[in-house]
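Q: Got a minute? One more chain.
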Amino acid sequence: MAGGDEQVESFLQALVEELAIPETRYQQAETSYKSLGDWFHRDDSRIRDFDPVVYVQGSFRLGTAIRPINDAEEYDVDSVCELRKLSKAHLSQFELKQLLGHEVHAYHDAKGMTKPVREGRRCWILDYADGAQFHMDIVPALPNGAEQKILLERAQQDARWALTAIAITDREEPTYRLRTPDWPRSNPKGYGEWFKSRMAVVLARRKRMLVESLQSRGVRASVETMPDYRVRTPLQAAVMLLKRHRDNMFVRDPDLKPISVIITTLSAHAYNGEETIAGALLSILENMDRYILRSGTKYVIPNPSDPLENFADKWEKDSRKAQAFFQWLRQAREDFGRAARATTLQTMNEAVSTRMGAGLTDRAVKRIGGNGGRLLRMASVAPVAATPAFGNTPRVPSTPKGFA
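A: Always. Here it is, folded:
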């Protein structure tokens, strides 16, 4: 993929803009979890004395959230409520979940929310009004950073992100109702910081450019106060494109589709600071499978914030999931490779419309002033043979160099 080709870049940028959720959605998510946090700190809250803090996790935290495929789907805002002055010695997973559940139900009633509170495997779920088109998952959690750091250091694993680790609830765990130190682990803050570190230079530069642009127009702004979601890096854009490609490819087999955290993790590893979306896609699609490790016949994709966790653990239980990932990767290489080699806007559209969605790609064409497919490439552009392409044969995964 010719990362320097302005026309290809314009098409990919238009696709990302059509995929991107409105900035108001990020603001809406922030308002919602802050409102919940304020509620947990009210005078008669049962958990106020345990210093609850609510924060967002998942794609909203990473800046890789995309619009639902259709209006029937909702935005899933994943959040955590961490009770920072409680420990696993004080209560069981079940007791923590019920304690937080009481407050979530009270919030629901006080705010006049009509849809009932739902209980998920690890969380409580608040469904907002139909017009809002989103729901919030609230995962109960306790601090687990000190223990996690010791655990990783003893295992001689990277512990640099460990201090923000948390212990979470899971009603399918055998120890769910027992007071025990054996709780499921997570670290959304640590993972978010790792992901951010993979694009830190580009993110800082783009933030600075945005601030300078705003200041030149008389708008008060600073890099320190600028929210990350105001800026999108090529890594974030590439992840968004790959997730939608995945969604449409597995619309009839949702249980087999590669999970977002695998795509995001491998993409971040393979990203090498490219300044364009096309360049980022090239690097990611050519190299992401090199960051899949092998232990005998077992595939391993370590969680960068907790290397003892394997994101590909379900591949061993169901080999179809591994096959589905490599099938998707081959298809993504083929589709985006065809788009890169296309010489007209029409053929660019045709290359990716099946997996990206015809409606999405048509809107992207209109966004950049589609004109019936006239030639986009100029004589100075390298011929097709010189344009990098993505092979269809998956590489044998190996130990990655510079694994972080």
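A: The radius of gyration is 22 Å.
Q: Perfect, thanks.
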